[in-house]
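User: Some background: our group keeps a shared notebook of sequences we're curious about, and every so often someone picks one and asks for a predicted structure to add to the entry. Today it's my turn. The entry only has the sequence so far, pasted here. Could you supply the structure so I can complete it?
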Amino acid sequence: MRPLRALVYDCDGVLFDSRRANLAYYNQILTELGERPVLEEETERALLCHTGSTPQVLRHLLGSERAAEGLRVAAQVDYRPFLAWMTPEPGLLVSLRQLVRRLPLAIATNRQRTMGQILQHFELTEFFRCVTTSSDVQRPKPFPDMLWHTAQLLGCALDEMLYVGDSLLDQQAAQAAGVSFVAYRWAGEGRRIEHHADLVGLVAQLCDGS
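Assistant: Of course. Here's the predicted structure to add to the notebook entry:
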């Protein structure tokens, strides 16, 4: 890896604890379609609601025959009530204030239209040079398209970026793109951090090429 020139974050589980919000959002869609809700103890289904893109989630929950109907319902759901169920990760704001002075920050997330609302609500828009959602690319994570697109927007090489994620989808996308990866509070391969404060020190090392 060359000296670090850009830091890219996933959203859910990295910037925010949003599990309850995501589950409530998809359960509202399911309820409107007459389907049973996803329970927190349904580990695999609940995790997909947290990590997948909306088309991925609805195809899995509704089947391919009703996925399009689910997307039409999702497009009408107002996400603002669910923002109250989201909380920034501990130490996020402090670390963003330090890191943005050092290098460009970006987001690459499987979210779609809700990302802008979230950043505005939590007053974080100013920190990020660019935001790539699954609406901006042909294929969502775990495909590398999102990180390719982000590198183009930032004007840097793929091996000059670090991606912070919390799931296998994030790790697979980084590996496929040739981008260095650090796992946030998740037992991924390679580098791992437990707190946003840890990211400040890691970035300092990588910017120096160490």
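Suggested note for the entry: The first helix runs from residue 19 to 32. The chain has two domains: 6-17+86-207, 19-84.
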